[in-house]
Amino acid sequence: MTAEEIRTLYRRPVGTIYRLASTEHWRKCDDRRPALYLADDVADTFDRLSMRAGTGVPAAPG
Question: Does residue 59 lie in a domain region?
Fold first, then answer.
C-alpha cells in the first residue's frame, strides 16, 4: 500500500502516515518509490490505535 492509498483508506493526513510508518516500523514490499508498505503492518497499527482509543472497533475499513 502506498502512503496515498493508506491516507485515503484510513482518512489520516499523509504526514501521519509517514510518522506511523517510521515509528511502527512498517515493512516495505521493496525499495521502490513511492514506498509500498505491507498491508498487514498498516492494519495492525490502525487496529491497535482504535482499541487504545477505546472505540472497541477495529480501524480497518469494511
Answer: no
**Residue 46, domain extent:** 3-52
Q: Is the pTM here over 0.85, yes or no?
A: no
CA angle, residues 47, 11, 35, in degrees to nearest 5:
80
Whether residue 57 is contained in a domain is answered as no
User: Measuring CA to CA, how many Å separate 9 from each of 12, 31, 47?
Assistant: 8, 23, 13
31 within domain boundaries: yes
Instruction: Note down pLDDT in tens along the chain; length 62 residues.
Output: 999 999 999 999 999 999 999 999 999 988 878 889 999 999 999 999 988 776 555 555 54
